[in-house]
């Protein structure tokens, strides 16, 4: 990003803010244009209290997916999260089969360091031992996305990456039966079908959808077939309480084209190095939600859900410079490796919020408990067939066969003290206990594993908020967080790896200080500074034992700090001057600077321990900027978006080049996206979307494991068009 761009863009927004100041009035949620109501659906921060949650003093966002502002048909995360500064997106595929996001130095890989929720309950496969998010809801089913940054650790869980909650659509309560459907088709034989029903009959309301997405993929050998199901039946047994049963399922089968070396990427970024690799997760989530409003000041929410399913892969695993060709001695392809995980987890969370008078003002107290139990059965390094289709059968048993079990108890409490009408203080505490058990065999079933550990974590935090006027407020928050070490950190990969018996969970804290608000409907802003301390990051060192044998030693390798600034601004270029205008043109910018560096530690490199001090945190670009123009006029909404992501390093060593492509620099990139929606005849709409308009050649990640190893090219230019109906 050049210096002129950094100077001119903020200056433009300052000028726009000065113009908008003259239009200062209260925010409205809708505009009336020639008998057509257009929802503003602007991003905003969450209210001080929502349900049983307290958000006062926290860095939050509330965003509303719209067809004219994002490519919802293929779950385009960089557009959907465009107005949330600092969201780093790993683009594994152009079909949106996975949600891979991270912030402030956290890992993007299947959002592994983010507390991902749907309607308030977790969807991560195993919250403590293997917290990757294999489940992904179609964005067409989402009505609202609630985001809380690192300060989410006290109320929702310990993750440094904060909490993201997808609130799904509900049926129209004014209808007995409603129906919506959208069919989209596009390049590379892309097809997406979203179909839903909903309504209300007496005290029972319901909503259900079925979504299917197929295509050949942008690269050869990258075909996919994805399905998602959801049903919600809610019974309002009186004016105070309700109970709802929900069931969600997502499954897909994806062919993996493999990683590339730098030379291969430079020669042809669209080529495939693997034709026999497949990935297949299947996740089921039944849930029961109970809500009861005892009176206007007291509310109870109890959620219980089960997550069960599996994650399967069959692949020829080797670096990209080793081709998958017929073995001359075998006269066939080499056998593939089969890996399978089976998940079975149960979680119950109960939360109570009570508001009370403290002096002449009303304060609020929330508290809750959580019980979590999860068993993961991990079977890896099985010898599969020499075939080319998706086949999980074995010719030789699994080399790794583990039973991984986690038991977690947690309790939290926060109190929002309304000190004055404008000033709130919200201290909080959380206590967690984790019991981890790991048993089984590794190294071709020759080495037994037996690991047990029990840990307790008290966490503390405080939020401050000062309402400057009706349109703006200062906020600040400090909250402790931790990341429990995952199963891979306490399971030796081979005989040469030794696990530190005193390995510790990563611990640290997150701090925010910001200013946010709006000026009428003309200008919105949220600017904050942040500081994240991430201690005891896990990794490997090289050690030589008393017998002069060299081992890799899995331990805590060092501490890291991510600090910087996040800024969001949006200005109405037409309505700033004419609030009665029948159309609007909005300019937004979402800019973040993250200085993520190791402050201490060392890691193994070519058999030597090398200092990490001053190295970039892996996968953490300094600059991320997303800017766009949104046009609204009657039946039309359309957004043109610019994306810039700075360079980053793929490993803690900050390797600049590796002949295999598995490690090295991830270069910066620029690209443009476009979304369009046209509504007509009240119940119908047309959509059109183009990703990567100018066909930029780029990638967002290198990887030394599944599904590479090597460079994973991002998609070039793709498009889709759709037709929808809602009655």
TrEMBL record:
Give the family, as the similarity comment puts it. Answer: Belongs to the TonB-dependent receptor family.
Annotated source species: Mucilaginibacter gossypiicola
Q: What processes does the entry annotate via GO biological process terms?
A: siderophore-iron import into cell
GO cellular component term, pick one: cell outer membrane
- Pfam families membership: Plug, TonB_dep_Rec_b-barrel
Task: Write the record's keywords in alphabetical order, separated by commas.
Answer: Cell outer membrane, Membrane, Signal, TonB box, Transmembrane, Transmembrane beta strand, Transport
Span of domain TonB-dependent receptor-like beta-barrel: 408-693
- Provide the leader sequence positions: 1-22
Q: How does it sit in the membrane?
A: Multi-pass membrane protein
Name of the protein this chain belongs to: Fe(3+) dicitrate transport protein
Where it sits in the cell: the answer is: Cell outer membrane
